[in-house]
Design brief:
This is CoA ester lyase. By secondary structure, the chain is of the alpha/beta class. The chain has two domains: 225 residues, Alpha-Beta Barrel (TIM Barrel), CATH 3.20.20.60; 42 residues, no CATH class. It contains 13 helices and eight strands. The protein has an eight-stranded parallel β-sheet. Strand 4, helix 5 and strand 5 form a beta-alpha-beta unit. Helix 10 crosses helix 11 and helix 12 packs across helix 13. The longest helix is centred in the last third of the chain and has 18 residues. It is globular and about 65 Å long.
Length: 282
């Protein structure tokens, strides 16, 4: 029964294209179904920040039970430096509904590889980078065996460095993740959450995310998911431009200037994303 609760559009979307990544606290099983029926492209059951230390074991059992009875989701596991990491992975390696894990506090490439080795072969590991050391090692992390995608833990990074939430203050870190992802041949990185933001404020935050070259965003509220999906998708104007250029190209139009092939590639990418996100009739 639980499988049918998952948003069918989101369930069919490859995680490499996921825009909204909704963190659902594993402190209560009541959080799971609302997350899975939301517009989130990917849902992450959170056993790390959302769960206090005395409740970690119960949260782990709760997640494994959900992933063994029809639900499917990603799971944020505790840092490799904690006493909970090994038990988290041992339990999740037996959960049939596990889509992948998000590794908290990733700072070194071998942390991703060690995590992947404890899971079923092929289970993707999303490296959540939350510190200055992690940012400086981002290129190596992106190239490590097992790394699926990078994500930016903005709150902890700001605590570690003293940076403000001004986009300029975080521009280096975001750029580092974008460049590292490209070097590692990964999908675009996932930006951190804009805590409490909805509506126009969240759309403005998504503009920053997209302008930096990031293609996903973490969130904590189910109501934020649809806004993030819209904010990180091709706009109507972009889709119209791409459709016209591709139509002219198919009809044999040839443009001799040096910018044509890059524009054609961009149009093809926009068209492909519009197909994947089901935007043609939106």
């Amino acid at each position: 029964m639980a499988t049918s609760l998952r948003n069918s559009r989101a369930a069919a979307l490859p995680a490499k294209l996921s825009r909204s990544w909704l963190l659902a606290s594993a402190a209560s099983e009541d959080n799971f179904i609302p997350a899975l029926t939301s517009e989130a492209d990917s849902v992450v059951f959170d056993m790390e920040d959302a769960v206090p230390a005395p409740d970690k074991a119960a949260a782990r059992e709760r997640v494994v039970e959900a992933l063994s009875t029809g639900m499917t989701a990603w799971v944020r596991v505790n840092s490799i430096e904690t006493e909970y990491w090994a038990d988290d992975l041992a339990a999740l390696s037996r959960a049939p509904g596990l889509r992948g894990v998000m590794l908290a506090q990733t700072e070194k490439p071998e942390q991703v590889t060690h995590t992947a080795m404890r899971l079923q072969a092929g289970t993707p590991v999303l490296a959540l980078i939350e510190s200055a050391l992690g940012i400086e090692n981002a290129t190596a992390i992106a190239s490590a065996p097992g790394t699926f995608r990078l994500a930016f833990g903005v709150g902890d990074f700001r605590k570690d460095t003293g940076a403000s939430d001004d986009p300029m203050a975080l521009a280096y870190a975001r750029s580092k993740l974008v460049v590292a992802s490209r070097v590692g041949q990964l999908p675009g990185p996932i930006d951190g959450p804009t805590v409490g933001a909805l509506g126009d404020e969240l759309l403005e935050a998504c503009k920053v995310t997209a302008s930096m070259g990031m293609t996903g965003k973490l969130c904590l509220l189910t109501d934020a998911t649809d806004t993030i999906n819209r904010g990180l998708s091709p706009s109507d104007a972009e889709i119209s431009w791409a459709t016209e250029l591709l139509r002219d190209h198919a009809a044999g139009a040839v443009v001799g200037d040096g910018s044509y092939l890059p524009r054609l590639a961009r149009a093809q990418k926009i068209s492909s994303l519009a197909d994947s996100y089901g935007l043609w009739n939106a």
